[in-house]
Design goal:
By secondary structure, this protein is α+β, with helices and mostly antiparallel strands. About 50% of the residues lie in helices and about 20% in strands. Strands 1-2-3-4-5 form a 5-stranded antiparallel sheet.
Length: about 200
């Protein structure tokens, strides 16, 4: 009688759950015998319950996301994009090659040297300002701390009219170390003897 009832219960569970739940025969035998051997269950059940596995997986995913959020942003690529944005369609095509080969490697080196002195917390909170200034203003972008909103390093480009030579773009930067007073030169790019267009144009 017990075997018949056991088989009926197993079949009923399979039909009700459309075969998604496959009850363990050891489980049913323990119920019908009126006792369970906890040691056997512990040894036999080597896998975690589904809910715990799902929870652990969810926790790992959250931790991975947190780790990604804490990683420093790619300052180099954003810096390049902001520089190109400042150059605009009129200036950019003419100076882009010189900028990429002469100026940008030094700009990248300046960023690396400056942020290397920061602690991990400040490093993970670095960002680059958007919207470089137009007209004939110097600002390209600033690297700053998102928490304190304080600038770490400022990159500028100044348009210089040198008599008999023409117009040059002088790229330079200032750092927080000395209150942005010292002018650190990155290099010059020649434009022409004609007045250059405004930035962002």
């Amino acid at each position: 009688m017990k075997k018949w009832f056991q088989k009926a219960m197993v079949s009923a569970v399979a039909v009700v759950t459309l075969g998604l739940v496959s009850p363990s025969h050891a489980f049913w035998e323990g119920i019908f015998e009126g006792h369970t051997n906890s040691k056997t269950q512990m040894e036999g059940n080597t896998s975690e319950p589904t809910t715990l596995v799902a929870y652990a997986s969810e926790q790992r995913t959250i931790e991975q996301i947190d780790q990604i959020d804490e990683q420093p942003i790619d300052l180099t690529e954003i810096a390049r994009q902001q520089a190109y944005a400042k150059f605009g369609a009129k200036i950019g095509p003419k100076i882009q090659e010189d900028f990429d080969t002469l100026i940008f490697p030094k700009m990248q080196e300046a960023i690396d040297m400056t942020v290397a002195r920061l602690n991990d917390e400040d490093l993970s909170n670095l960002a680059i300002t958007e919207n470089p200034s137009g007209n004939y203003s110097e600002k390209i972008f600033n690297v700053y701390n998102r928490n304190t909103h304080e600038d770490i390093i400022r990159f500028h480009v100044r348009t210089e009219n040198r008599p008999m030579d023409g117009f040059y773009y002088n790229f330079h930067y200032h750092t927080y170390d000395d209150g942005f007073v010292t002018h650190y030169d990155l290099g010059d790019i020649y434009w022409s003897k004609n007045t250059p267009p405004k930035w962002l144009s």
